Amino acid sequence: IDRALVDVMALYRDVLVLPELYATERALVYGLGRVGDLELHVIAGPGPDVSAQHHFALQVGELEATRTQLAKNGCEIEDARPVGGRERFFVRDPFGKLVNLLAHTS
């Protein structure tokens, strides 16, 4: 198995705890929300331009715990200003895709 694929699986399945629905030769598919509601397709391939700001967001229950877990797993954290009453930060997955993690403030 390609090392980048193993790293991507570790990030989405093990660190962010998204259920893996299935995998193909080029994509890993994770479930979001209730089964059948939303799917996240992570496509294997060369990373995007690292200056690109295109991203998707995942709302988490414990933002600081998620930040700590991602940092422990080697992810570089990029702080961001709050938006819409939610604290947030960004990370890039092993394929270079930008991910916004956010949580409502108390």
Describe what this molecule looks like in 3D.
- There is one protein chain.
- The radius of gyration is 14 Å and the shape is globular.
- The strands form two sheets. A four-stranded mixed beta sheet has the order 4-7-6-5, with helices on one face. The chain has a three-stranded antiparallel beta sheet with strand order 1-2-3, covered by helices on one side.
- The longest helix has 13 residues, at 3-15.
- Strand 5 and strand 6 (86-92) form a beta hairpin.
- The mean pLDDT is 84.
- It is α+β, with helices and mostly antiparallel strands and 106 residues long.
- Helix content is 22%, strand content 39%.
Rg result: 14 Å
Approximate helicity band: 10-25%
- Report the span from N to C terminus: 42 Å
Helices and strands, in order, run as HEEEEHEEE
